[in-house]
Amino acid sequence: MENPNHKHLLLLTSLLLLSHSDLILTHTQLLPIVRCSGHGADRDVYIVHVKHPNTTHLLAAADRETYYKSFLPPTAAAGGEQRLMYSYTHAISGFAARLSEAEVEAMASREGFVRAHRDKEYQLHTTHSPGFLDLHPDHCFWKESNFGAGVIIGVLDTGVAPFHPSFSDAGWRSRRRNGRAPATSIRAAGGFVNGASVLGQEKGSAAGLAPRAQLAVYKVCDKACFGSDVLAGIDQAIADGVDVLSISFGARSAPFYDDAVAIGTMAAAAWGIFVSTSAGNEGPREGSVENDAPWVLTVGASTIDRTVRSTVKLGNGQQIYGESAYQPGNFPATQLPIAYPGARGISRAKTCSDGSLDGVNVRGKIVLCETGGANTSVEKGAIVRRAGGVGMIVMNGPTEMYTPEARAHVLPAAHVSYADAVKLKAYMKIAPTPTAAISFAGTLYGTPQAAPAVAAFSGRGPSAANNGVLKPDIIGPGVNIVAAWPKSVGASSNPTNDESIATFNMISGTSPAAAHLAGIAALLKASHPDWSPAAIKSAMMTSADTLDRSGNLISDEGLQAAQYLATGAGHVNPTKADDPGLVYDLWFSDYVAYLCGLGYTDRQVTSIARTGVECASVAAIAAEELNYPTIVVAIGANAQKTVTRTARVLGANETAVFDVYFTTGDDVEGRTGAVAEGQLRWVSNKHTVRSSISITFI
């Protein structure tokens, strides 16, 4: 947690890109924010939900704020600071304020109070991908959707570097700077930039998935994000009229009434806004998926068929293939001694971290470094270089397996798979004087053949808060993605950090994957403006691919067939999503019935729905009965279960209701916790509409 005396200045900015050369600053609000430790602090930040008074919808912003302030104590917060931080209009009915636990308890007796919860911290999830998705400038779908023209994509992240050429042919006119949002923004809606590359690799034209879409960027995060700020960003995005939201941060799955992202995006969905969120980077651990509400698209990360090849040749002649975006042409491919700090018993996470090389002679050597720990592989390379090392081999562990990353390292390097790391360590044990050489082959396309595959870090289901709905929903490109970057990368840096220079970086995470899907959603919205957010999601999911480019089932990080808990419906196919045949639609009332079916109290449902809800008067449904494009059931031995779905035939304005029957026998006994998978397919001469089915035996 952060120092309770440290003040944060949050600049909440809505940047609306009206054309590739015009930038208009539509909303700026400078707020001093104090973040307190959640344990032992006298006052903390609370998000407070209240009922709408009868005339609230008619009140001006100042009158609404006065109403909200009536719930607050008359005294100032600690240090004389104002209590009210945010007065929300659209995202929730309520506000964020500095309060003590006792003050919140006293507030609970006030007329109109619904509930309050502490502010929560959310973590950031942090060229060739359009082509990998079969999107080319002369492709019919990209042309017919006019590259997303007329659609506004809202990006909630750390801000934007508006001078970057990806956002304008002539350059933006703004002084906003930050470190990460250019990466997510360009994947969704960056314009065409010829000659883009990362340190000379991945050369080509860089573009977002909807390069003519308008862009609104909301700075709601710094190194982390807080729920009150996130709600303020969503509140403003709704007011600005965005069509699509891209959210690339999250937190461990929690009940939706305690999740600001879930609450805010419920409001966005009710306003007709499509929301693409990242599934989190805590995979491959089971149940690690984040952003798991059914009204958002939860996106996992996949690989693409591109390798930035660096080759390690061991002293015994054995060759190992790795990846690195930094490939200096003047580095000699000669045998050099190897140093392995892990041989001293240092834990995997601490190898090549600060202080770990003390007493280890790495000067003039190639150093073996493990993944994991507080330092990224690029940071570990910097530590190795400072200690005198001339090269680095980054070794995946048993969780990362076959997901190496081509990072913009600061010294010659190769990132290798876990299987190759095992070979390296075996060589180190038998070689009296182990040596290695690193050489570079540049960017290779069409490799590996097993692409797309699920990235090791991609969040996995089942959802802890929502296990009746399959999450993640879908996967998209999220490994070694070329993205706009606000400062130089690699061994030599640009000391001025001139944002007008077309700097790009190689990034991996479910963050760029979610941005890809936000761009595709913008294309679909432009092509089908009458589709609801749920219809767009259904179109993506029921048309998703389940096979890789070799015709085999999509694999996981271990090159085994991936489960639906990793892939969801499969890998996005934009062209097929443009003409899905039929869709499974959902509306606000369906989500309310679903929330009541989760067993939430009236106050909890009201805080999510932003309107008074009495579940006793709602026809509550079980999660599996939500009209979702995938099906999840839990069933025991000798049991029967029926799940109903309603499909809408596109172009004919017809709907069809059908039941799916599940029956088990004695053979299920003893298989508690086991998962079976299948699929339901509706097939015509033109369409194949597929729904993934996941069955858990109880």
CATH superfamily of the largest domain: Peptidase S8/S53 domain
**Overall number of structural domains:** 3
CATH class of the largest domain: Alpha Beta
What is the straight-line distance between the termini?
A: 39 Å
Please give the share of residues in helix: 10-25%
What is the fold-level CATH name, i.e. the topology of the largest domain? Rossmann fold
Structure description:
- The chain has 3 domains: 44-119, Alpha-Beta Plaits; 124-304 and 455-491 and 503-579, 3-Layer(aba) Sandwich (Rossmann fold); 309-437, Glucose Oxidase, domain 1 (3-Layer(bba) Sandwich), CATH 3.50.30.
- By secondary structure, the chain is an alpha/beta fold.
- Residues 1-42, 169-174 and 176-192 have low confidence and may be disordered.
- 19% of the residues lie in helices and 28% in strands.
- The two termini are 39 Å apart.
- The strands form 8 sheets. The chain has an 8-stranded mixed beta sheet, with helices on both faces.
- Helix 6 (227-240) runs parallel beside helix 7.
- The chain is built from 15 helices and 32 strands.
- Residues 348-424 form the PA domain.
- Residues 148-548 form the Peptidase S8/S53 domain.
